[in-house]
Structure formats: C-alpha cells, structure tokens
Amino acid sequence: MARENLNPFDIAQHYFQLAADRLQIDFGMQDVLRTPKRCLTVSIPVRMDDGTYKVFIGYRVAHNMARGPAKGGIRFHPDVNLDEVKALASWMTWKCSCLDLPFGGGKGGVKVDPRTLSKGELERLTRRYTSEILPLIGPEQDIPAPDVYTDSQIMAWIMDTYSMTKGATALGVVTGKPVALGGSKGRDRATARGVQFTLREACRERKMKLKGATVAIQGYGNAGSHVAELLHEEGARIVAATDSKGGVHQPKGLDPKALAAHKKKGASLKTFKGGTPVTNSQLLELPVDILVPAALENQITGANASKVQAKIVAEAANGPTTPLADDILFKRGRTVIPDILANAGGVTVSYFEWVQDSYTFFWDEDEVDRRLEVYMRRAYQASSETAKKHHCSLRGGAYVLAVQRVLEATQVRGIFP
Fold it and tell me: Bridge partners of 108?
C-alpha cells in the first residue's frame, strides 16, 4: 500500500493478504477466507414518540464460521456502513482465531445516532432490528455483543426479543448482558485487562519494567479509563490522557480516578486542572514508554508515525494504526501490540460468558481474570513466536497465526458439497 488507504475493509484485506502471502495460500482458498459468508441489510421502521415513523438501516455480517458461530458486536452510530461492518466482522474472525476461541467473526450495526432517541424509541429500534436479523442469530449461529453506543441494556432487549420469539429463554444468544440476566462478572474491565496482560508480556520481552513506566492514553472511555486505573495499580505513571475534545499532560503523573470523576461530571479532560492542555495529535508524540490508543481508527498514520516516541504501542482501539504507520514503527524498533491481540480481552470474556450461560454455572471475578490472563499470555507468546519465525512485526505474526488456524479448520471441514 504505497499510498495510504483509510477504508477499513481495504485495510483488513491488506493485513489478510500479507498473512496469506507468508503462508503461501493458493488464490482459490484466499478467496474463500477473505469473502464474507453473508451480509444482511435490513430496513427498520420505528414508531417515534410523536406518532410519526422513521426508517433506519441496519446490517449484520457473518464473515467466517469455520471455527464456530459468528461472534461480534452491534454498534449504533450515524456513520455505520456496510464496508465498515464487513471490515469489523473480518477483524473479529482473526481476533477470535488469534485467541484460539471456538468462534468465527461477525458484526452488526444500525445507522442511527442513539443520543437523539428517547429510551422508548431506542427500545423499539433495538427490538425491531433484532426481529429483522433474528433468522441469522442464535447461541449456536451468530452471537452479538455490545459495541459503540450499545450496552448491557440493549443486549437485554435483544435477548428478550429473541427469547419471546423462540418461546424459551436463551441466555446465550448475546453476551455483554447484565449480570442479573446471565452476564459475566469482570466483563466491564475485560478489554482493559487484556491490554494489561499483553503489556506485561511486551515489557518482559523488551526487558522493560511496567512499574515506573510512563503511559499516555488517547481516549478515556470504558477501555481507556480502566487501562489507566489498572496500569496505575501496577505502578506505572499515567502522564497524559485525552478524550474527543483534548486532554491534559502532567509528567509527574495523573490520578486516573480523579480523571474518571472529572469525566463523570460531564466535563472534558481538557479542562482538568493539574497539568498542561494537550491535543489528541500531540499526545501521540509525547516522550513516553507506553502509548495506548483507545479512541478511533487511523490515529497513527504515515504522517506522524516517525514522531511516535513510545517504545510500546498497545492498541486498545480497533484500527488506530494504518498499515504504512505500522511498517514505519516496526522499522524503528517499536513494539505495536495489534488490536486483534491487545483488545481481545472483551471477546475472550464474552466467550467465558457464553460458556457460563451454556452451563448456567457462573464464576466469580477472580476466576474470570485468572482464565483471561492465561488466554492473553498464550496468545501473545504464540504471536511473538510466529512473528520471529516470519521476520515480521507482532501484528504480522498475530495475523499469520490467526489465518493459519482458520485455514486449517476450513481445509479439515472441506467445502460443502
């Protein structure tokens, strides 16, 4: 990719192609692995509170199901489009495979700004969307989860709609549910825990100490704020944090809980007292040991990758680093823990939730965290070993590992008929 292409589906295909070339997969099988299994587009008529009707457009994509049911979140966002959903579904295929979970990749979305809807309108939208995709989802077919602007309440509505239609309670049709409805303890911090565990491995590999390391975090939502707290507890120093409007830089260190309390008041981190203001782009170039992009995609690009000073970049967000930037960082000796590995704690605990729902036997949070650490450490080590074997970046290693597992499952199953 000589020129930067920021289309998410093209970027996902680019990383797949690199892995396929390293594995010397023939062209026919490449087409089987790269092509989404099914893409559903639905119209969602919703009765608004004032009695009028509006039609929204929704999607559900299953990219690959060779290793098990499709797994992936549902996002409600005004910019949702089919290319984005296809890209995210393919990322979920490789993410689940990288972690060696018995799932394929799926994703869904509705083109809507949920912040403009009342709770009643949001519930009616969710239930109608569920009814439209209902033939394709199920505990053994395709298992949704929360994503951008969706939460445990929306998952509860999906579970209830599906269950009422089927005539029996089906806890395992979605993950990310409230604990009272079969949700897993530890789910709220699962993504952040995954970042924490992979950072431990990256630090060990680079002979760095996490205790005392300086950290900058772009994006102070659920993942970013929890990463800050967990790393702070390990003795790392959080020196900068931003949200969508900007943030604060304090070389002496910031208190993550104070930052979270400031955000809870509805204020931006750029108004937090006790440091100097910093923009999102400036944060990426600060002289820190660890950089955690936990916001939007395409933040580290060919234009700024040479200015990134962090030794380790842990991608808590999906797609924050472009392919060109990834190459630049690798050549500069930086470790980028790729999104399909770094932020896979969420889907791994979703898997744990699905297992617990299947047995209606639930674990305490310590058990969830213990099992998650085993999965994250194993996946990091396998990705690192694969990267060394192929003389490529950690992202390259993670993709080769993931694609190889899906390839093997596909070949063993065969192509029906």
Answer: 60, 74
User: What rounded mean pLDDT belongs to the chain?
Assistant: 96
Beta carbons of 68 and 104 less than 8 angstroms apart: yes
Pick from 99, 162, 64: nearest CA to 352: 99
> Which residues neighbour 4 within 8 Å (Cβ) at sequence distance 6 or greater?
301, 302, 322, 323, 324
- The predicted pLDDT at position 1 comes to 44
DSSP code per residue over 357-384: HHHT----HHHHHHHHHHHHHHHHHHHH
Report the SS3 class of residue 300. Answer: strand
Q: Are residues 47 and 88 in contact, defined by beta-carbon separation less than 8 angstroms?
A: no
Helix (H), strand (E) at residue 231: helix 222-233
Bridge partners of 336, per DSSP, are 313
- In this prediction, residue 118 carries a pLDDT of 98
Nearest to 62 by CA among 135, 115, 164: 135
Backbone angles phi, psi at 164, to 5 degrees: -65, -35
> Residue 12's pLDDT is what?
85
Say what the pTM is.
0.95
Q: SS3 letters for 58-124?
A: EEEEEEECCCCCEEEEEEEECCCCHHHHHHHHHHHHHHHHHCCCCCEEEEEEEECCHHHCCHHHHHH
Instruction: Name the CA dihedral angle for 162, 172, 373, 340, rounded to a multiple of 10 degrees.
Output: -40
- Selection from 102, 175, 161 nearest residue 353 by Cα: 175
Residue 314 has pLDDT above 50, yes or no: yes
* H or E stretch covering 11: helix 8-23
Cβ–Cβ contacts within 10 Å for residue 150, how many? 25
Question: Which residues participate in catalysis according to the annotation?
Answer: 107
- 8 Å CB contact between 108 and 30: no
Domains of the chain: 37-172 (3.40.50.10860), 190-337 (3.40.50.720)
Q: Taking a C-beta distance cutoff of 8 angstroms, is the pair 353, 155 a contact?
A: no
The edge-to-edge listing of strands for the beta sheet with 276-278 is: 276-278, 246-249, 237-243, 214-218, 290-293, 312-314, 335-337
Element of type H or E holding 47: strand 38-47
| Amino acid at position 357, single letter | D
Beta carbons of 206 and 335 less than 8 angstroms apart = yes
Check whether 7 has a pLDDT greater than 90.
no
